[in-house]
Amino acid sequence: MKVNAKALAPVALVAAFGLGSLAPHAQTPAQKIGFVDVDGLLQTQAGPKEARAIENKLKTETADLQKQANAIIAKGNAATAAEKEKLNQLNATYQAKAQAAAKQVQALSTKMEAATKVVDTAISAAAKANGYSVVMDRAVAASSGLVVYADDSTDLTAAAQKNIK
């Protein structure tokens, strides 16, 4: 019996795939993914705390301005010339207060950068100590739809907080 090379080709192909699938494959170890409340950690630091206080003060100071402006805007074309002038004054006052607040926050930039470095270092240390290969900001992950559910055991916020000095 003579064996033809063309007749053996399909058998050789099947054998190659079959034997190839039996070869051991390197398995990638499971990666631990953790989540951290970055904003909460930042609020424990001086710069972000001060910036939040400035923001809250601006909201409080401009709440009445907003109310008055909204009342005039609601009148639409029925607003008198005096009301329209008042609206322009309210807008100018609001802009001035917002710019002053922005300058105050800008003056805190060095403190903000230092706080971010402290928090990032604390998160990295907590992640490494607990065997996490990926850590995400919980708020960003949730708001982006990237993560729909995460068990509370994946929260590294408390561990990171312990690393903040």
UniProtKB/TrEMBL annotation:
Gene Ontology CC, one term: cytosol
GO terms assigned for molecular function: unfolded protein binding
SUPFAM superfamilies per the UniProt record, alphabetical: OmpH-like
Keyword annotations of the record: Signal
A Pfam family per the record: OmpH
Record's signal peptide: 1-26
SMART domains: OmpH (SM00935)
GO biological process, one term: protein stabilization
Record bears the keyword Cell wall biogenesis/degradation: no
Keyword presence, Signal: yes
Family: Belongs to the Skp family.
Protein name: Outer membrane chaperone OmpH
Organism, scientific name: Deinococcus ficus
